[in-house]
Each structure stands twice: as structure tokens, then as C-alpha cells.
């Protein structure tokens, strides 16, 4: 991630002609450690992951401006460069627009007052690279688990800012302990690995543990992804007994409809999780008869951001990402 970030920073400082539907994004960056030489940076990462805008925060004034930003949804990230390496490090103050859980900022025109607060780092993490020689393309996720079988929700992870499966990354974890690390290309965008999607482990075919401690961020956690067989279709995700067909519309503003079907009598739970893997709502639970089912998700007071719908049955679970934009 560091080499990519450096390249993106250099590109962002080069003036370019203003494309159609491009606007200026500005605000303040508050918090962090004091000192004139401690530079701060802001990165605007589009949800499409097709580019990154990076700018320097003006010292003393603590303001930032990013010109010529194309319309769309963005995750805004800021950090304070304590060691003048230009790249973000895990022990440096950082923050997101939206607070602890990143909130998607929808850029529809020139926007000011888009403020970000920095917090001292309390999480650990690790970094490394992912390599891939196959022909598939798509979002590559890095995830960390307490166990080498990678069952259940991840306890940390990261993402490549490319769709090629090749690049460097920095991942965060939720506590200081021993982890096992894997990477996979999420071809059907359900946030979990499915048979047929390229995947690899740190350590090769047998996952090796890493230890994340306070003040220690393991580096060189490198992963080689390889092809597997039997890719699931992109438009539906199936198991032997139930199917998670669609979430529409997605992104959505206030309500969206989740469609799923079961082959026979099945006890299921349909739940909504936030970006940190916390259950925020149970949408349906209990026995279901065979056939098609629809459940309407009401956003209520949920903040803008990335969530995922998870359908759990007696023989497994299925997930699909959903983006709420206010």
C-alpha cells in the first residue's frame, strides 16, 4: 500500500483539466498531535476503487481542499504523518469522515465543511503484498481470523486499491493476539470466499500464524493468490437449500427489498451487519416454507455506510453487501 500511496500522492499534486461533473471538496482536519512540522493528509477513496485523490492539509489552518473530484460516493480518510514517511502508518493518528465507522460521503456538487477528526491509534495491524498471475479481475480483500480454518466473521482486514489482485496493503485488526491471514478476489461481491474465487494464505497451502502486539505491526505478510474452480454466478448466490437472490435497489436511500428463496422447510435468520461485523438488525428469523420470500429493509436511523445482509440457514450462510446513502 505504501508504494501505491506514494504514487497516488505524486499524481494528485499534478494539476489536471477539470472533467465533467467534477467538484471541489474541502473541510477541516481536527485532533492529532500538535506541531507545525507534523503534516496531515487526506485521501478520498471512491467506492468504485478506480482511483484515489490525496491532498496535504494546510498547517496551522488545518484545512484541506481537493479540486476536480468526480461526482460519486467516497470514503474520506485522514492521518498525521509523525515520521515524515508520507505514507500512513498504523501507530499514527488517523480518522474517517463519519468517525469510527467510515461513512460514505456522496459528492454531488462543490462541498465545504467536510470535516474529519483524528484519533490516536488504538488498533494493531499488519502489512504486506498480494500477487496474482491469473486472468480474473475484481475487488481483492485481505482478512484476518483467530483460527486457521477462517470460520465465522473476520476479526480484521484490508483491501487492495486495484482490481487486479496485485498490490500492497495495510490491514487493521480488532485486538492484540495471534491471527491467520488470507486474501481472495470477491468475484460475486458477497464479502466471503466462495469456491472458484482466487485465494491464497500467508504461509502457502498451510496458513502460518502472525502475532500482532501493542506497538508491533508485522510487515512482509505476503500472499500469493491462485485460481480455484467452480465460480459462482454473479447475479445469485446459492447453497443446497436456499438462495440469496438480490438486494434492490442497491445503493439505497431509505428502503431496499431483499429477495431469497428456500428449497424446502428451513429455519433461517436474515440479519444486517455493519462494516465492523456487528449485527445491527434482525430482519427475519424462524421457520420458512419452500418458495420465494421478500423482506423490506427500513434504514431508519442507520447512518450512511457499507453494510452487508447475511442469510443463515441450517447448512451455512450467504452474504451480500449493501450501500446506504442518505
The CATH architecture of the largest domain would be Sandwich
Number of helices: 1
Provide the number of structural domains.
Answer: 3
- Give the strand content: over 45%
User: Helix coverage percent of residues?
Assistant: under 10%
Keywords:
326 residues, mainly beta, Immunoglobulin-like, eight-stranded mixed beta sheet, five-stranded antiparallel beta sheet, disordered N terminus
Structure in words:
The chain is mainly β and 326 residues long. The protein has three domains: 2-118, Immunoglobulin-like; 125-225; 237-324, Immunoglobulin-like (Sandwich), CATH 2.60.40. The protein has one helix spanning 2-12, and strands at 22-31, 40-46, 53-56, 63-70, 72-80, 94-96, 105-107, 116-118, 125-132, 140-145, 156-159, 167-173, 178-185, 199-201, 209-211, 223-225, 237-238, 242-248, 255-262, 266-273, 279-288, 291-298, 305-313, 316-324. Strands 9, 10, 11, 12, 13, 14, 15 and 16 form an eight-stranded mixed sheet that branches. Residues 1-17 and 231-239 have low confidence and may be disordered.
Amino acid at each position: 500500500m505504501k508504494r501505491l500511496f506514494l504514487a497516488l500522492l505524486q499524481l494528485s499534486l499534478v494539476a489536471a483539466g477539470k472533467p465533467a461533473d467534477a467538484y471541489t471538496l474541502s473541510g477541516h482536519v481536527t485532533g492529532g498531535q500538535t506541531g507545525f512540522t507534523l503534516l496531515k493528509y487526506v485521501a478520498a477513496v471512491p467506492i468504485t476503487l478506480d482511483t484515489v485523490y490525496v491532498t496535504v492539509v494546510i498547517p496551522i489552518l488545518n484545512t484541506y481542499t481537493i479540486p476536480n473530484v468526480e461526482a460519486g460516493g467516497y470514503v474520506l480518510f485522514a492521518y498525521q504523518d509523525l515520521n515524515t514517511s508520507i505514507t500512513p502508518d498504523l501507530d499514527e493518528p488517523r480518522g474517517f469522515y463519519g468517525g469510527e465507522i467510515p461513512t460514505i460521503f456522496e459528492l454531488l456538487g462543490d462541498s465545504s465543511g467536510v470535516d474529519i477528526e483524528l484519533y490516536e491509534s488504538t488498533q494493531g495491524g499488519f502489512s504486506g503484498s498480494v500477487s496474482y498471475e491469473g486472468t480474473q479481475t475484481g475487488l481483492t480483500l485481505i482478512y484476518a481470523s483467530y483460527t486457521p480454518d477462517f470460520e465465522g466473521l473476520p476479526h480484521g482486514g484490508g483491501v487492495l486499491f486495484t482490481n487486479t489482485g496485485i498490490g500492497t496493503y495495510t490491514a487493521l485488526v480488532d485486538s492484540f493476539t495471534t491471527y491467520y491471514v488470507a486474501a481472495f478476489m470477491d468475484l460475486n461481491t458477497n464479502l466471503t470466499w466462495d469456491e472458484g474465487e482466487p485465494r491464497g494464505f500467508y504461509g502457502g497451502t498451510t496458513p502460518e500464524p502472525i502475532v500482532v502486539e501493542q506497538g508491533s505491526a508485522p510487515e512482509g505478510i505476503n500472499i500469493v493468490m491462485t485460481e480455484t474452480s467452480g465460480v459462482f454466478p454473479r447475479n445469485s448466490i446459492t447453497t443446497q437449500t436456499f438462495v440469496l437472490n438480490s438486494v434492490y435497489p442497491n445503493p439505497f436511500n431509505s428502503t431496499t427489498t431483499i429477495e431469497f428463496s428456500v428449497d424446502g422447510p428451513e429455519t433461517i435468520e436474515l440479519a444486517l451487519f455493519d462494516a465492523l461485523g456487528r449485527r445491527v438488525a434482525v430482519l427475519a428469523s424462524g421457520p420458512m416454507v419452500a418458495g420465494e420470500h421478500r423482506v423490506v429493509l427500513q434504514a431508519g436511523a442507520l447512518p450512511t455506510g457499507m453494510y452487508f445482509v447475511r442469510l443463515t440457514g441450517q447448512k451455512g450462510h450467504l452474504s451480500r453487501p449493501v450501500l446506504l446513502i442518505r
